Amino acid sequence: MIPKPGKNHMQTDGFRPISLLPGLSKLYERILLARMKVHLQKLPPEQFGFRQHLSTTKQLVRITDFVGQALHNNLNTAILMLDVAKAFDRVWHEGLICKLIDLDFERELILVLLSFISNRTFKVSVGNSLSTKRIMLSGIPQGSVLGPILYLFYVADFPKIHYNSNAILACYADDTAVAVKSANVNHAIKKLQENVPYIENWCKRWKVRINAQKSQLLIVRKRKKNARLKMELLLFNEPVPIVNKAKYLGITINNRLTWTPHIENTRSHALRVMKCLYPIIGKFSKLDLYKKRLIYLSTIRPIMTYAAPAWATASEKDIEKLQKVQNKFLRISTNAHYYVRNEVLHKDMKIEPLNQFIRKINASFFKEDSQPMISQLPAHVTTGHAPSPLAPALLDSRFGQILSSAPTVQTSDDSRNTSSRMLDNLGISGTWNSKAIWFM
Known about the structure:
One of its GO terms (molecular function) is RNA-directed DNA polymerase activity. By secondary structure, the chain is an alpha+beta fold. Helix content is 43%, strand content 13%.
């Protein structure tokens, strides 16, 4: 059990169960994963989690592009960020097997996966006390090789019936966001509300729990757009909190699509890590400069440049805040006097200024061969060094339309009959009705 940061550790919800599996078991899981790769192509295109050539950065670029395009066209964007409670721990085993059948998994592979997730036991140890053995009735093991992939198949049919060019669904495993743009902010919220029943029905059918109070609704609009909100978004008959900024996949997005809050959070995080590393990078450290340089390049700089293409429109003033963190590390690690110029420290440590490094990351990202839609975007020349709170032109030309809306996925009667026959062949008796799948 690993404590969750920022949670009450006097409650069971404040801990995350992690499965410690033997090395031989993980080797066998990797063999199974190789057999499952052919089925990964069946996952919906908006699911970016744990898939080859996809990442959190690409999903974030997709979202910021959608919001930036809306601002450029004088539209408002309502973003609903769902909080799935205990996503991996609440996976319904029978429902997962049924979805694997619908995806045409081989019978033998399904039987092996059923054996993998079934009859798992656990004990709880507190001090010298040990509980009795209990059977886990749901969930997939966290810390396993197959766990994240099985979860992707479990949520592969997340409802997306009414999404079009004015709406977008973004998923990275259990981190789900739904965004709708409209000229009227209340109309955008209304469109979101129209899709909520489909989400609620899907959650009830597949025993997925969404916490409405921990979910967030972010309204992104221009400063001059001060239309009052006349309606609230209800999820399971509970109002979803409206926030001015929200964190999604590690970056902070605010209601103006400016990046000062994200830069401030990133700067604070980097300084906290640097403080923890001070004993091995300070003037009393016995490490040579080469090792200190490696520590910076592998720990602190990745924190400051995470998902840089997503916040490529950050102003130079914000980037300078991160540059000061780099300057501080160089001065501490080299024990340089105050009169030594920062340019000299960068040259001696062979570390390029942060703005140049971020520019290099962005250029590499948008020219990547694995992203043909991005590489075909037209070039854009911008004037000035600090973008406006919207940076519409820069967002419009640099990002473009990265991923179009996903097609409608519907379950036919033939697939239901096929699933029932497969269940019988697997030795699992059950029936599938219009609301849920029941196994006996």
